[in-house]
Amino acid sequence: MDFKGSDTVPGPRTEDHLPHTAQAAAKIVIVGGFGVGKTTMVGSVSEIRPLTTEETMTQAGVGVDDNYGSETKTATTVAMDFGRISITEKLVLYLFGTPGQERFWFLWNGLFEGALGAVVLIDTRRLEVSFDVIGRLEERGVPFVVAVNSFPDGPRYPVEDLRTALDLAEDIPIIECDVRRRASSRDVLMTLMRFLHSLAMTGALT
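RESULT FIELD:
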């Protein structure tokens, strides 16, 4: 589009403007392996039209990307997903969904900068892909909660069995969710905020 000769440049959409009551904002990252539902979660819960960087999957990824359980998936996030949700009238969360394919994980470092906390989405059909994800968050000292995305053919495990399998500390919340549902995704974010508040109250959040 050519703006030459124009005195005005289009600004943000009205729907993208921050609520006038907003006084604080926090950056939250949503991480997980390929195909666990990160893009879906951002899209379901965002109060603005989410920004996505999905590209069509090609033969180049065959034998490189692990798409077990996501064989019908035709697109993948190559940079990030972005959305926004107002938790209260005063608090706004900026949501950043990370790429799931391991070859794009080098982008995670930038997305982690300034993050207050994280949601780790897991698929019980592929628990092993969560190990490196959790390890990266622990290395960077980013507090997180674990959200088990319910897939119809995914096995169900008791929370304590999942905690043991993922080698999680007793205080890290584990919550089941359906990221297709806005209310469910919002519950996950509220769980994270309560966890971060508890850390702040004990002085564990710096």
